[in-house]
Amino acid sequence: MKYKTFDHMNCSLAQTLDIVGERWTLLILRDAFLGARKFSQFQESLGIARNILTARLTRLVDEDIFEKTSATEGGHAEYRLTNKGLALQPVLLSMVHWGDEFKANPKGARLTFVERDTELPIRPMSAISQDGRSLSPRDIKAIPGPALENMANLTRRDK
Q: Is the pTM for the entire model greater than 0.70?
């Protein structure tokens, strides 16, 4: 199913969703962060149709989220996260942490994310103040930036 694009919207969230908002794309990114590199690895993990996987990977390469390496003789091309792709890790972690809290498995944690050097669990993702404090949603408000032309289409909430 082809979805309407958001490229006409002057909204950072809409622009991001236009690239990574499709559910297969998020699961492809998840697998890449867990170590998948080859087409066959993504397909086996996800059970996704080849044509859909090809289209999603192509878009991620076109958007510079993945870099596709050339296939070696007798080998296969690999898909590696670029710096732009790696910058999506906090987004995916936030979604996982939300799922851990609100869609928990009764058997316990599915995955625990740890710091590589210490193997200590990381803290749940949250908005952080300039001085390092965790902020709640009620502590945050949006104010217009220089690229926002019109706030008429946004609902403004101060609290």
A: yes
